[in-house]
Amino acid sequence: MTAERGRILVAQRAGVYDIKLIGDVRMVLCTSLSNYIDSIFQRGDATEVLVDLLEAQGVDSTTLGLLAKLAIHCNREFKLRPKLFCSNDGINHTLNVMGLDEVFDLYENPVSDNFNWSELRCDDLDEESCRQKVLEAHKLLIELNPANQKDFVDLIHSLENS
């Protein structure tokens, strides 16, 4: 079975931010996702943040690191714990191993889907910007769970020295 191309849908209403990942979400979308997350931080009005992975077939470590960035910031600055919805056993296992269960409330049941979704445009990939996003994402995964260091230390050193 071929994985569906990754897409990110977003919706926002009155301080409630929704992010839906569909298909196989990979690093190619990291700049767009990071920019959207930064826009949530800049508005500073978040009262609820929902991340829907119910239609995700795969999520790479860069994307997980960016989701960690979202949750850590929401916990620290907005004093709210984002909700993450996922029924894929493999992805749920990865979320727990990476430590994202420490910063998200995890649910396997669907979230109500009456949002006015729009697809997040895939920003052009600038090599340096992408390198910085990948580096930031993996450092956050280590900050979230020091046990992740063994998996990402070589990648971080390589990115820092490139």
Compressed to H and E, one letter per element, the order equals: EEHEHEHEEHH
Distance between the termini: 36 Å
The stretches of 5 or more residues where confidence is low (pLDDT under 50) are: none
- The general outline is globular
Number of strands: 6
Features:
six-stranded mixed β-sheet; globular; 162 residues; alpha/beta
Structure description:
With 162 residues, this protein is α/β, with parallel strands linked by helices. The chain has 5 helices and 6 strands. Strands 5-4-3-2-1-6 form a 6-stranded mixed β-sheet, covered by helices on one side. A hairpin with a 2-residue loop joins strand 1 (7-13) and strand 2. Helix 1 packs parallel to helix 2, helix 2 (61-78) packs across helix 4 and helix 4 (127-144) packs antiparallel against helix 5. The longest helix has 18 residues, at 61-78. The chain starts with 6 loop residues before the first strand and ends with a helix.
SSE diagram, text form:
Elements: E1 7-13, E2 16-25, H1 30-43, E3 48-59, H2 61-78, E4 83-85, H3 89-98, E5 105-107, E6 118-119, H4 127-144, H5 149-160
Parallel strand pairs: 2-3, 3-4, 4-5
Antiparallel strand pairs: 1-2, 1-6
Q: What's a concise summary of this model?
A:
With 162 residues, this protein is of the alpha/beta class. The protein contains 5 helices and 6 strands.
